[in-house]
Amino acid sequence: MSERLVGFEKTLVGLERKGRQRRLLQRDGIDFTSNDYLALANSPRIRLAIATAMAQGVAVGSGGSRLLRGNHPEHEALEADAAAFFGTERALYFSSGYAANAALFSTLPQRGDLIVHDALIHASAHEGIAASRAEAVAARHNDAASFEDVIRRWRKAGGAGHPWIAVESLYSMDGDRAPLAELLALTDRHDGFLVIDEAHATGVFGSGGRGLAAGMEGRDNVILLHTCGKALGVSGALVGASQVICDYLVNRARAFIYSTAPSPLMAAGVREALRILVDEPQHRTEFEQLWTFANAQLTSVLGLEGSGSQILPVMIGDNSRAMHIAERMRAEGFDIRAIRPPTVPEGTARLRIAITLNVDRPAIVRMFDTLASISVEEAA
């Protein structure tokens, strides 16, 4: 090994020693790890919509950024459909949720403003916050009073700008919900903005699958992020906000300006996914029944309290032990992954069990029974 690579190798060795080295694994076994909640990633309707768009001459690639030649009628059609579906004045399509969050937080909060973010907010939000000119402070997880305390201290110390409250509506690693109504009232009291990442609620919760913030859209101080690669089964992300906010992002968000536009075929696929939510509400009904059943199984078989959503964390604590149990579950035919720091706080390594319509009740029963047996063996 050349001397140039020694430092990188030492870092990898250190991660391995702590049980934190990541490796790419192929999908194998029954899906208990993806975010394909409504099983739309293989939807015949979405496949047909994309095939039809191709047959009509829609290109695979966009060929450039949206501000150059990359702006395609499919992008604009999706944004119009999404704004109507989610009830926002405007929608803007990004290549990923990561890019959208990075753009939002690096662009919108201004110097003199304050970003108050939930302690467990996604890494992509942290990426944008780190690039922001605004001050940033973490509030206790799902604690509206903590958010208000941070804002009051900032005001008392001379803060004169706008507070930006940043949360996920449904947290990706714990499956719990933000107190959105309290946070909206707090936002109004302090002349602020509320940014809600609906990534794991879009398509699953709210009226017609519009998310847990359904009913808050259309306000000029609420900005919503809906990812398209989870329950919608395609890729990309939609920011829903006022016309002014979206125009500002087009003009100032470097992650939008300097990125090649998403494939117009993906935009066509997302449009069809939104139509499916309207035309086939049975997917959501069936899914709610399935994840409710899984929560009950978690309690009855493992004695753990459910999250009340499709994301079921099983806390292990030790990184290496979490990895070992996940490996044993995969060997039994269940694709379950271990989540370790820094994705989650130190000491909270876990199995993240995701329920999707790619599984059925018998598979859920077998999975929890197997996990219970392995857990007993590992504790012996």
Structural account:
Helix 2 (44-55) crosses helix 11. With 380 residues, this protein is of the alpha/beta class. It has helices at residues 6-17, 44-55, 66-70, 73-86, 97-107, 123-130, 144-156, 180-189, 243-252, 254-257, 264-279, 282-302, 319-331, 361-379, and strands at 30-31, 90-94, 114-118, 135-139, 163-168, 193-197, 222-227, 237-241, 311-317, 334-335, 337-339, 349-354. It has 14 helices and twelve strands. The radius of gyration is 21 Å and the shape is globular. The protein has two domains: 23-40 and 281-379, Aspartate Aminotransferase, domain 1; 58-279, Type I PLP-dependent aspartate aminotransferase-like (Major domain) (Aspartate Aminotransferase, domain 2, 3-Layer(aba) Sandwich), CATH 3.40.640.
Which characteristics define this entry?
380 residues, alpha/beta, Aspartate Aminotransferase, domain 1, seven-stranded mixed beta sheet, three-stranded antiparallel beta sheet
